[in-house]
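LAB NOTEBOOK - FOLDING QUEUE
OPERATOR: T.R.
BATCH SIZE: 2
PURPOSE: Compare the predicted structure-token outputs for two unrelated chains run back to back under identical settings.
PRIORITY: normal
REVIEWER: second-year student, initials M.K.

ITEM 1
FIELD SEQUENCE / FIELD STRUCTURE:
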Amino acid sequence: RAMTEIEQIEFKKVGILDAFNSDGLRSLLNMPIPDMVEKTLRFPGHIQKIIDMRNNGLFEPDKINETAKFLTKEWIASPKDYDQTILRLKFKGVKNGNNITKIYDLIDYYDKQKNISSMARTTGYTCASVVNILLTGTFNKKGVFAMETLASDNKLFDFIIRYLSDRNIQFENSSF
């Protein structure tokens, strides 16, 4: 259930964040992974404030416009504000008879020089990499495909990761 199972997760370059269940794994339902969880990351205390607002009825249809106006008025953007994208992929399983855990972290920041948000960088450049794959004819199957299905082809996966890396979007990994 969304907004439940709140836990704290630490990232070296960011610090401690709250992680909580969210609902966005629909395109991964057909993958051969028996247990999968998606959690959203926010600064500590954020989700509890959202839960409190929900529990106090501030998102009800007759209150939502008033809530939005209040929040918009209270939040004043600063020129120092910037976005960041933080992602952790954690895999647990058995490889060659040994229990193994692999963690891949992505921490990306707003590009001040080019004035490109991190969210635009991480999502837009990923989409652009796929467009390049299509333009070169490397992937020419017909139909509708979730982006995640491309990762099953090592050549396509490596191209996308290299494309992102060339734009300074990099995953750090650790195994234990």
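ITEM 2
FIELD SEQUENCE / FIELD STRUCTURE:
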Amino acid sequence: MKAPRILIVEDEEPIRSGLKNLFIYHGFQVTDVCDGEAGLSAAQNDPFEIVILDVMLPKMNGFDVCEGIRRHSKKLPIIMLTAKTSEEDIVNGLSLGADDYVGKPFSVQELLLRVQAVLRRTQPVRTEKIRIGNGLVVDPTSLTGAGRGEEELVFTLREVELLQFLAQDDFRTKTREEILHQVWGYKEGPEYDTRTVDIHIAKLRKKIELQPKTPEFIRTVRGRGYQLVQSEVLVS
């Protein structure tokens, strides 16, 4: 079995070295760099299965690196290392296309489990298109949406997977925990932070809703979770 390739972008040498040793021990092929420019160059020019990306980096910060990676690839998974108490870092990173975050100081075991979960979810996306309301059609193959206005919308792989999961089981309400388990691949348990789900829902609403602050299509069901409504799966 081919060893998964992981890129670690971290400027603090003890953390970078520790992560490198951790992932080598668990069978990964590791590339590690210490600044943002080197990280972006590596992600754009070499094939990786996943990127671990710190926020505070010399030469180019992690947010700019994340944005640059997303312009190059909508599918490459990115886990950001953020200041544990910084809500702004978390929101910024996920809004720019990161798949998830781990707050510093972090448990290396938690980070390893999240990386393994992301890799378990790396599989061909389902091809059925989803029509949102009367106009927007989301195409999972191209990760784009069209049909409402002239501007073509661009989605990340994680956003499309989230929409597809919300469309399953006759569009029933899905809890945050279900979404984390099924879309992010995390094992069941109370230890995972649900802000990842909420921020991704907010990102989707900005793209598909006419009025994101009063959503029509992705509804919050109080005390339960989220439900996709007024939509249909298009079977070709």
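REVIEWER COMMENT (ITEM 2): DSSP finds nine helices and twelve strands in the chain.
FOLLOW-UP: none requested
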